[in-house]
Amino acid sequence: MPDSAPAGDGTIRLERRNAAQQTPAAARPGRGNQMFAVLSDVHANLEALRAVIHDTTRRGIQRMFFLGDIIGYGPNPREVLDFLKNFEFCLMGNHDRATLTGPPKTFNPIARRATSWTRSKIHLSGLRFQLLRPGERKRRRQYWDFLMNLKTCRKVGEMFFAHDNPLNPGDDNYVRRVGDAHAAFARHPDVRAFFIGHSHVPRIFYPGKKEKPELVEVESGHFVACHNVKSLMLQ
Fold this sequence. Notes:
The chain is an alpha/beta fold and about 240 residues long. About 30% of the residues lie in helices and about 25% in strands. The protein has helices spanning about 45-60, 75-85, 95-100, 110-120, 135-150, 180-185; strands spanning about 1-5, 10-15, 20-25, 35-40, 65, 90, 155, 160, 195, 205-210, 210-215, 225, 230-235. It has a 6-stranded mixed sheet with strand order 7-8-9-13-10-11, covered by helices on one side. A 4-stranded mixed sheet has the order 3-4-5-6, covered by helices on one side. Strands 1-2-12 form a 3-stranded antiparallel sheet, with no helix packed on it. The protein starts with a strand and ends with a strand.
């Protein structure tokens, strides 16, 4: 997902960092020009998360938001959950939900195995000799309660955050085409910027004419300027 930082002329500058990070975006109205970081789809990759946190700390960024898929695939679901519980907010991704309710039919065999393994690390059903391990029981309940209480979307001022589809957050659909992005713009006319994850593909959509839509593919380390226009940014 692209990074963004506010400028005095109202321009939002966007920068791609890496697969786990989306750096500063426009600040919440009324809170000055404070930068914040938007992350997504870390998938229990503790090493990547630590690298991102190191970078945001170096930049003096204190406010952090997460767009979902905290867990799934990676080997450190518990450690990553411990990290992200301190963010200003976290949203629910499809892999987070799959851990709670079971993998959907659309998951490939690797994703299904990863979901089952992750569940065994954070759910009480995966704990042997529970009565002899009260501390571990409490910790697993905390992980589970945290995941259960995640929301599918969040609105902050003129910004909209979701894991997947801003038209129907939580339906696991992707924003792949310009038409998908324009439908989101039409549904939420009061939103200036959307931040969504899920696709693992960095892109920026702008409202434009149907016959000549505006789509920018974002490469690592490159900057893109958005001059006072609405945008939908993917990670």
